[in-house]
């Protein structure tokens, strides 16, 4: 997860092969720990314009295919395409049904023809893309005029408790970086797509202890992959420091982990509207 406030940050991009490998490894464990991802995807579905009847939908960054299966139920006559950068995720999704086609590909360079999709749905995937402007450009290219892009993502403020706790221990990059909400606003505004809805909503999860949180991030494949992250195992003393530092955030429900979720719905203008 990259980009921060800059349009590009080439030195700080996570390597896409590592992103793909990490999610492929997580394919079997992902669904058992994906409560937040379920809630966010459902909230995104709720935001789809009423009466939408796509002939073809695309689930971009489809992961295990949970939302491909939901989309297939919502739009049962439509042709469904699932695209993901992680082959392991696609294999898992293919075995469980949902989309008719499962295609390996990158959201920044979609393996789809121009004007071939009516609904592009993407939940919690584009925070892994260094160039969100390229994602929007690709959405604009593959959508038919009148087609809808619905995405959710994460922005600055996500996992700040973990970030601050590590900062107190060694000042190194232990937590993925996120774009600012203002950058989502600016990039969506410049995309040539009509902005229907863009909002940020905090979701706070609670954990018994820090290990439960870090194990969950690993099971999701979403642990830190940024360049500059410390290599090797975390030493006992540093881990002890982390546990102590995180305690300052403890609430009656447990240790909080805040996710700042961005929800966006955009539409490709019809020819006469541009
Ligand atoms: C957190 S999972 C979300 C999966 C699913 N959308 C869900 O909500 O359960 C993120 C997914 O995005 C995929 N992904 C990451 N970067 C991608 C890229 N550049 N292009 C396509 N998929 C990508 C990952 O492989 C992973 O399967």
From TrEMBL:
InterPro entries for the chain: BioC, Malonyl-ACP_OMT, Methyltransf_11, SAM-dependent_MTases_sf
Domain of life of the source: Bacteria
Catalytic activity: malonyl-[ACP] + S-adenosyl-L-methionine = malonyl-[ACP] methyl ester + S-adenosyl-L-homocysteine
Enzyme class of the recorded protein, top EC level: transferase
Similarity comment: family membership: Belongs to the methyltransferase superfamily.
Coiled coil: none
UniProt-listed CDD domains: AdoMet_MTases
Listed EC numbers: 2.1.1.197
Name listed for the protein in its UniProt record: Malonyl-[acyl-carrier protein] O-methyltransferase
Any one GO molecular function term: S-adenosylmethionine-dependent methyltransferase activity
Pathway(s) served: Cofactor biosynthesis; biotin biosynthesis
UniProt keyword annotations, A-Z: Biotin biosynthesis, Methyltransferase, S-adenosyl-L-methionine, Transferase
Example GO BP: methylation
Function of the protein: Converts the free carboxyl group of a malonyl-thioester to its methyl ester by transfer of a methyl group from S-adenosyl-L-methionine (SAM). It allows to synthesize pimeloyl-ACP via the fatty acid synthetic pathway.
Organism: Pseudomonas soli
